[in-house]
Write a structure and sequence with these properties.
The chain has 15 helices and eleven strands. By secondary structure, the chain is an alpha/beta fold. α12 (243-256) packs across α14.
């Protein structure tokens, strides 16, 4: 599962999410660490389609409205600005995540990104209450943080005016409004309001039966973009005799979770192709490849941390399946421990290579 962070985060990556979410600080670091892995994986042709459609929409309407599900710490916001996918001018960016701990890292990440950016950028607190909070106040006021997804409702993370952030560069002003909420429930409350819907590493944890409800957030002619959608491949190199058994149990764990699907990419592709009221515009592979840096010792950036968290998640997921019994005769708890010991040693020595198969999908809803 690439999932958020995670159904809670959407953008949680190939990690299952549960093991990571138990330590909020480590999970936020994981989301930052995987940014470079995502950057390499994302298909540039589909990003070009997104760029063109957002530019056309902004030229027509003057102001762009983007709704992201599973925002995590905001790496997609930074990426869309850095790569000039968001058009010049003003963008309202509603950043929804079910996990308020992940959203708590949004401001710190964006400020650090702005400070490190070669081109000038600033991140300031927005003056006044965010539009997202004002529009959903009546619906969300009675919903306590942590209520079930089915209850719906949305609330701003933290609940103060300072939650909304204004990101400014030389040509762009992006008002980022963090909302701690279930994405499908928020979409229902704000149907037809968004020009673009983004869900990174989302569909493998969302449950495709909720996809139509999510698309309802889009205004006529709006664009959906679902990158890094897991599609049934988990590989580690160098090869080990227990790799296939571990992969099978890891994917089984994904499939047994509510909304989980280890073949989400292909299933989403089929569903979006056949959906009434929308048109699939493109699909491409976006495989993760995390490997030692060429000509250097170790991994780029913080990717060794990323890999250690992936192994922690495999340990938790596969260990849970083994402990639950069933068809696990091919692998014992001792086998898993021995495999993990080897893989962690390979991370420490800069030898482990990790690959996953994923799809990016982009499309539009029909005009009214």
């Amino acid at each position: 599962m690439t999932g958020t962070d995670d159904a809670a985060g959407g953008d949680g990556g190939s990690a299952d999410g549960d093991a990571l979410a138990a330590d909020a600080e480590a999970f936020r670091r994981y989301l930052r660490a995987k940014r470079s892995v995502d950057d390499r994986a994302l298909d540039r042709r589909l990003l070009g389609i997104l760029r063109e459609r957002l530019a056309d929409r902004a030229a027509r309407d003057g102001r762009l409205r983007v709704f992201e599900v599973g925002t995590g710490v905001g790496t997609m916001v930074a990426r869309l600005i850095d790569w000039e996918v968001l058009p010049p001018g003003e963008t309202r960016y509603v950043a929804v995540d079910r996990d308020p701990d992940a959203l708590a890292g949004l401001g710190p990440f964006l400020r650090e990104w702005a400070d490190d950016r070669k081109a000038p950028a600033s991140v300031t607190e927005a003056a006044g209450e965010s539009e997202a909070a004002g529009e959903s106040e009546a619906a969300g006021e009675s919903e306590a943080a942590g209520e079930s997804e089915a209850a719906g409702g949305s609330e701003r993370a933290g609940g103060s005016e300072a939650d909304a952030l204004v990101v400014e560069t030389d040509a762009r002003t992006v008002r980022v409004e963090p909302v701690a909420a279930d994405g499908v429930a928020y979409a229902a409350e704000h149907a037809g309001e968004s020009d673009a819907l983004i869900g990174m590493a989302l569909l493998d944890v969302l449950g495709l039966d909720q996809l139509d409800q999510l698309l309802d957030a889009l205004a006529p002619g709006g664009t959906y973009y679902f990158p890094i959608t897991f599609d049934g491949g988990t590989r580690f190199r160098p090869a080990h005799p227990d790799d296939r058994a571990i992969e099978r149990l890891y994917h089984r764990h994904m499939d047994e979770k509510p909304g989980g699907n280890s073949r989400a990419g292909g299933a989403a592709l089929a569903r979006l192709r056949e959906a009434d009221g929308s048109t699939l515009l493109g699909v491409a592979g976006s495989d993760w490849i995390a490997r030692p840096a060429d000509g250097e010792a170790g991994y780029p950036g913080d990717e060794a941390f990323f890999l250690r968290h992936i192994l922690d998640t495999v340990e938790a997921a596969v260990g849970e399946v083994i402990a639950g019994g069933g068809e696990t005769s091919a692998l014992s708890a001792a086998d898993l421990d021995a495999w993990l010991e080897i893989r962690r040693r390979q991370v420490d020595s800069g030898e482990l290579v990790y690959l996953t198969h994923q799809l990016d999908l982009i499309g539009r809803v029909d005009d009214a």
